């Protein structure tokens, strides 16, 4: 992290006074809370950071459809099925807004998708865990969407305009997702002892992976310092993790569930819930491709991409036909212009 920041500054210093002036003016705009727009000058490292984060975020939304997608055909009622179908479609939409936001930075969506499919790009660790029972759909909505909102509300104020604007709509939809998940958990917890046990089991399996969603501890986060300086990140990984724990623990207690952490305790002095040590080795393993479902998720994405090739070809052919028809109707004058 520190090294990267030094390198960025060294590069500016080496580039000469004109370049240094451009960087200083850019940073002044950031400090003044101005939004940076696609046609504005920006440091190459800022552009690359955004492409990395926005594309990984888009991939997460797309891969994130898979664990819940498994339960669309097995939802326990028509109402639950309709809500889940709509939620999964929302996630596809989020992926598309985010790819579009990344494209404003001069990258092609096809290249970003290739990076995901050939394993060069990351997506959120959380989507490498299995959905074993219906209660997992409740836990994903309550906890995974809950964690996503905690991380994404500050991104609505991100310095890059297209990303910030995409996040506003995404957050509105995520908060509906979170509530539908909590309502599934509430229904299970008020149901039979077996249903409550399913909810407890889902919480036991999802709690720790959800805490990992916020990324490595601040002391090991490579990008945080620079991203905070550029006001891409407004809170650190650890700050957001703590906010999530503080918001979620009372919700779990309201459900009558116990958290799988014997060290979880309210600290009246700080007003925060203290929690036990996160297993960062598990996180590293999941990022390295060795989580419970990494291989299955990537196989499903590659298969879906291959199966959708004819749709992309047909859409391109249709767009080409419309463009040719429009230019023929406009006549030779417009073709000459
Ligand atoms: N999983 O230096 P930092 C959702 C990587 S969307 C995998 O701290 P940064 C909606 C990180 O990329 C969930 N990789 O990095 C939904 C970096 O690797 P790199 C996704 C992770 O960027 C709900 C390296 O570790 N949300 O859930 C993870 O400053 C339900 C070092 O880390 C977003 O993407 C992880 N958990 O902070 C959908 C939000 N954590 O790139 C379906 C936007 C870290 O050097 C169902 N992203 N890494 O190779 C962010 O806010 C940030 O990118 C962080 C990481 C906070 C995730």
UniProtKB/TrEMBL annotation:
InterPro entries in UniProt: Aromatic_CoA_ox/epox, Ferritin-like, Ferritin-like_SF, PaaA, PaaA_PaaC
GO-annotated cellular components: cytosol
Chain spans, region Disordered: 1-20
Matches recorded under Pfam families: PaaA_PaaC
GO biological process, one term: phenylacetate catabolic process
Family matches, as Gene3D superfamilies: 1.20.1260.10
Single annotated GO MF: phenylacetyl-CoA 1,2-epoxidase activity
Entry-linked NCBIfam families: PA_CoA_Oxy1 (TIGR02156)
Name of the molecule in the record: Phenylacetate-CoA oxygenase, PaaG subunit
Species the sequence originates in: Methylobacterium nodulans (strain LMG 21967 / CNCM I-2342 / ORS 2060)
């Amino acid at each position: 992290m520190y090294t990267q920041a030094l390198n960025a500054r060294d590069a500016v210093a080496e580039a000469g006074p004109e370049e240094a002036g451009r960087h200083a003016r850019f940073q002044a705009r950031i400090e003044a809370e101005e939004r940076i727009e696609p046609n504005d000058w920006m440091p190459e490292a800022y552009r690359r950071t955004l492409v990395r984060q926005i594309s990984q975020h888009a991939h997460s939304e797309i891969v994130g459809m898979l664990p819940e997608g498994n339960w669309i055909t097995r939802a326990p009622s028509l109402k639950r099925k309709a809500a889940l179908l709509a939620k999964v479609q929302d996630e596809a939409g989020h992926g598309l807004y985010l790819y579009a936001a990344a494209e404003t930075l001069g990258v092609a969506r096809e290249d970003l998708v290739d990076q995901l499919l050939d394993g060069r790009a990351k997506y959120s660790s959380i989507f490498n865990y299995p959905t074993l029972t219906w209660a997992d759909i409740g836990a994903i909505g309550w906890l995974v969407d809950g964690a996503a909102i905690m991380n994404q509300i500050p991104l609505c104020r991100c310095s890059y305009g297209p990303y910030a604007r995409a996040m506003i709509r995404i957050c509105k939809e995520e908060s509906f997702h979170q509530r539908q998940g909590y309502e599934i958990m509430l229904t299970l917890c008020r149901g039979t002892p077996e249903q409550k046990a399913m909810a407890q089991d889902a919480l036991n399996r999802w709690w720790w992976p959800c805490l990992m969603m916020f990324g490595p501890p601040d002391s090991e986060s490579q990008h945080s310092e620079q991203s905070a300086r550029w006001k891409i990140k407004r809170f650190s990984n650890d700050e957001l993790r703590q906010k999530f724990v503080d918001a979620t623990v009372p919700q779990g207690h309201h459900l009558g569930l116990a958290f799988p952490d014997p060290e979880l305790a309210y600290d009246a002095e700080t007003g925060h819930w203290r929690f036990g040590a996160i297993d960062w080795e598990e996180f590293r393993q999941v990022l390295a491709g060795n989580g419970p479902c990494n291989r299955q998720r990537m196989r499903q994405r590659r298969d879906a991409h291959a199966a959708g090739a004819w749709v992309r070809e047909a859409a391109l052919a249709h767009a080409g036909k419309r463009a040719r028809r429009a230019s023929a109707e406009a006549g030779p004058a417009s073709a000459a212009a």
